[in-house]
Amino acid sequence: MTSLSRRAFTTAAVASLLVSCGAGQQADDRPTTARPGANTGTGKNTNSGTSPSPRSSAKATPALERSVPVRLQIPAIEVDTPVMRLGLAADGTVQVPPIAPHDQAGWYRHSPTPGQTGPSVILGHVTVGEYGDGVFRHLEELHRGDRIVARLENGTSAVFDVTSVRTVAKADFPTDDVYGDVGRPELRLITCGGTLTGDGYLDNVIVFAALSTASTNSP
């Protein structure tokens, strides 16, 4: 990714996450609450045993060729969702999945595809207004070592291991940790969390994961 495209990617993505996560919520929606012992809004990990940084010096699994994600599976929280492509909205911010009864995750198409070197970004809602829970309703319950499978358009699957889970105040969004250059294939899953107000949720839940294996038509 060039320096110019990286800056555009970072600026647009952060702007979107700060303003649009709470869109379409209803007054009676239940907000995501932090797990017991969570340190919400500080930018620190909320799951015990997670590493303090998403980056690691461990030997990386070789990167995959570019292939668009079509499905995302997270067995630990029973997520099995199609993945749509998200681009930029008219105001220059990143699109988010529509508020719909059959909620699904969305991959930001200007980020690397899952398995390519760099941070691949997938967004999802925690709630979808009158339709109830969103596809990432239980994202904050993931722990280090939990598996995430991104099934790709070319028939391969990129398998990631969670390295950390963080709940942060939107005002303290860790831009560099999420969008900064990394030397291995990584994944970022992002949703909302914390208290639901009239302006939306106050926090973001961010899952950091690193590629562990890759296979063709893996189970």
How do you describe this structure in short?
It contains two helices and eight strands.
Task: Describe this protein's structure.
The chain is mainly beta and 219 residues long. It has one domain (3-216): Sortase (Sortase, Chain: A, Beta Barrel), CATH 2.40.260. The chain is 11% helix and 34% strand. The protein has helices spanning 3-20, 175-179; strands at residues 69-74, 79-86, 105-108, 118-123, 147-152, 156-169, 185-197, 200-216. An eight-stranded mixed β-barrel has the order 1-2-3-4-7-8-6-5. The longest helix has 18 residues, at 3-20. The chain is globular, with a radius of gyration of 16 Å. The two termini are 31 Å apart.
Gyration radius, rounded: 16 Å
Structural class by helix and strand composition: mainly beta
Counting DSSP E segments of at least 2 residues, the number of strands comes to: 8
Shape: globular
Show unreliable segments. Answer: 15-20, 22-54
Describe the biggest sheet? 8 strands, mixed, barrel
CATH architectural category: Beta Barrel
**CATH superfamily annotation:** Sortase
Number of helices: 2
Strand order of the largest sheet: 1-2-3-4-7-8-6-5
What proportion of the residues is helical, as a percent range? 10-25%
Domain count = 1
